[in-house]
Design goal:
CATH architecture: 3-Layer(aba) Sandwich
Order of helices and strands: EHEHEHEHEHHHHEHHHEH
Number of strands: 7
CATH superfamily: NAD(P)-binding Rossmann-like Domain
Oligomer: single chain
Strand content: 5-15%
CATH class: Alpha Beta
CATH topology: Rossmann fold
Shape: globular
Number of domains: 1
Length: about 270
């Protein structure tokens, strides 16, 4: 039986929360590069009554992402895409962060922009780090927004000799996510579809806990404590916003980013 297809790339806490919230009645194509994590998530969601198909994917490979898009389309109309895969500064090197968080997003936007169904929608998980990053020069922003994926990692200002701190690379990658979504909305609009990004704050997922337990943890906790919400976010907080952006109520929202950080960014920006 062919059903509408929800594609979830990255099956960590946020990915599984999106699948649970939006998956009922659809074929949910789960994708991740970790077979153990992928199998565990697929088994859990299947036991909860979802129709699950799973596939290993390397988001840094155009061929792999294209293959995932083709498999998803084989199962039905690809109506919703949630790209949640990413690496944090405590998890990976600068090079790996740029490959997954920058190149990976660019490839997903291009490949799924070619198969998304009319009336469909996609979201990319970016980060509040993209909002907190100091302003980049105009030429660098243009390059991050428009450079073809195959050439992205060769941009001179992303050279490892100049960009050594993983946290800075992470902020640049997430800012690039915002920029590329703004450009991709035209490609998706040709197919009658929408694309947006979500910038979470500090979310209590496995990745978020790694950051809290890193050398940056005390600073992160202080930011959360000073924010309006005064708490960590949950994967379900992000899934709720994803459900809005991927649903019919957001039919007039495309090419933009929604900041979901409990007020952390606003607090930092307005501090006296």
């Amino acid at each position: 039986m062919r059903r509408d297809v929800l594609v979830v790339i990255g099956v960590g806490g946020m990915g599984q929360a999106v699948a649970r919230r939006l998956g009922p009645g659809k074929t949910v194509v789960l994708a991740d590069n970790d077979d153990t994590t992928l199998e565990r998530a697929a088994d859990c969601l299947t036991a909860q009554g979802h129709f699950i198909e799973s596939r290993n994917v390397d988001v840094t490979s155009a061929e792999s992402v294209r293959g995932l898009a083709e498999v998803a389309q084989d199962h039905g109309s690809v109506t919703q895409v949630a790209h949640t895969a990413g690496l944090s500064p405590s998890q990976a090197s600068t090079a790996d962060i740029l490959a997954v968080d920058l190149l990976g997003v660019a490839l997903v936007l291009d490949e799924f922009g070619a198969v998304i169904a009319r009336g469909g929608a996609g979201i990319v998980i970016a980060s509040m780090a993209g909002h907190l990053l100091p302003s980049l020069p105009t030429d660098q922003q243009h390059a991050l927004a428009h450079t073809p994926p195959a050439e992205l990692l060769s941009l001179p200002f992303l050279n490892a000799d100049q960009l050594v701190e993983p946290a800075v690379a992470y902020g640049i990658a997430k800012r690039a996510n915002h920029l590329r979504v703004g450009v991709a909305q035209s490609q998706w609009a040709v197919r009658g579809a929408r694309i947006n990004s979500i910038s979470p704050g500090v979310i209590s997922t496995q990745m978020g806990q790694l950051e809290l337990n890193s050398p940056l943890g005390d600073g992160i906790r202080a930011m959360v404590a000073a924010s309006a919400a005064g708490r960590l976010g949950t994967a379900d907080d992000i899934a709720a916003v994803a459900a809005f952006l991927l649903g019919p109520e957001a039919s007039f929202v495309t090419g933009t980013d929604i900041l979901v950080d409990g007020g952390v960014t606003a607090t930092i920006r307005t501090a006296s």
